[in-house]
Amino acid sequence: LPVEGERNVLITSALPYVNNVPHLGNIIGCVLSADTFARYSRLRGWNTLFVCGTDEYGTATETRALQEGLSPRQLCDRYHALHADIYTWFRISFDYFGRTTTPQQTRIAQDIFQRLLARGFLLQDTLEQLRCESCGRYLADRFVEGTCPFCAYAEARGDQCDRCGKLINAVELQNPQCKLCRGTPVVTPTQHLFLDLPKLEGRLEAWLERTWAAGEWTPNARHITRTWLRDGLKPRCITRDLTWGTPVPLDGFRDKVFYVWFDAPIGYLSITANYTEHWERWWKNPQQ
């Protein structure tokens, strides 16, 4: 735990996605640099905590589970153990290697959601999505194939065309097919929840000016952030019509889960919470 009067260092690396076997490139590109710094911090005598874990929700897990004839939970159990074994073999010095599919993750993610809701940072809107009536489900992007509207490639995915590389909205596909049953899905409206990011734009700009003046941002990070602000922040959808994910605790949306990019970053907090019940002393302690 953080110690008053000492230098306390919390280290993480990007959570590796669980649907494959990590290889040397993954380790060099992500985990190894964090491990090196953790070892350095310990040698300096700093109070150091190094946590990581597998990122396990999202449609990529569901897709891989279907390919392997497993449930998403079975797939995650298998690959989480595989990841842990490989990092142990490489002697990566995690203090704790966890995962995002835990009760702590659900509790903390839902708590953050309820706080956003209570403070007026969420809004509802209708999206048009492809729904397969045969399967009785809305189809996530990876569960749809069809003809690319840009280059006419016949096997484009619902999120991107592998031939021309353009990003695609699934409802734009021509001759769409459900990858599960090969039936023809129909465009159907569905309600979703959005982060009301425009509400934060003014406060964010003021905060950025202060932190940029301190000189702690890389030029690349500044450029990307400036681009987002130049174009104006847009509301960002945080729910999905799926079953594999953290449930949305709100009437009218209980058949949905959180979008993995809302949910997964909270994994850093929940993994720390699985390591220690006093996790907030690491994550909510600006004085230390």
Automatic annotation (TrEMBL):
Catalysed reaction(s) here are: tRNA(Met) + L-methionine + ATP = L-methionyl-tRNA(Met) + AMP + diphosphate
Q: What is this protein called?
A: Methionine--tRNA ligase, cytoplasmic
Q: Which UniProt keywords apply?
A: Aminoacyl-tRNA synthetase, ATP-binding, Ligase, Nucleotide-binding, Protein biosynthesis
Q: Does the keyword Mitochondrion apply?
A: no
UniProt domain Methionyl/Leucyl tRNA synthetase: residue ranges: 9-286
Look up the record and report any one GO term of the cellular component aspect.
Answer: cytosol
Swiss-Prot/TrEMBL GO biological process terms: methionyl-tRNA aminoacylation
- Organism of derivation: Setophaga kirtlandii
**One function term, GO molecular function aspect:** ATP binding
Q: Which gene encodes it?
A: Mars
Q: Can you tell me which family this protein belongs to?
A: Belongs to the class-I aminoacyl-tRNA synthetase family.
Sorted alphabetically, which InterPro entries does this protein's record hold? aa-tRNA-synth_I_CS (IPR001412), Met-tRNA_ligase_1 (IPR023458), Met-tRNA_synth (IPR014758), Methionyl/Leucyl_tRNA_Synth (IPR015413), MetRS_core (IPR033911), MetRS_Zn (IPR029038), Rossmann-like_a/b/a_fold (IPR014729)
At the top level, the lineage of the source is Eukaryota
One Pfam family, short name: tRNA-synt_1g
Q: Does the keyword Hydrolase apply?
A: no
